[in-house]
Amino acid sequence: MVLRRYLSPRLYVSYGVGLFERFNAFVLRYRLSTLWSLEARSGLQSGADLLYELESH
Asked: Which residues of 9-43 are buried (b: 16+ CB within 10 A; e: fewer)?
């Protein structure tokens, strides 16, 4: 099960819990600009990333 919510137009939070496995995950994403975001996560693997979004048409 995953709970997701935008706390502001730039701040996104997600929390997931495994129903059949022992698994918890927390993700926090902050949009720095239209192309750049900063994401931090914890769970089985923890880390942080600087993301660049490239859209193709």
From this structure: eeebeeeeeeeeeeeebebbbebeeeeebeeebee
Please state the pTM of the whole predicted model.
0.78
Work out how many domains the chain is built from and give that number. Answer: 1
Pair of tokens at residue 48: 């942080």
Task: Give me the domain span that covers residue 13.
Answer: 2-52
By three-state DSSP, how is residue 53 classified?
coil
pLDDT tens column, 34-57: 999 999 999 888 999 999 998 876
Beta partners for 47? 41
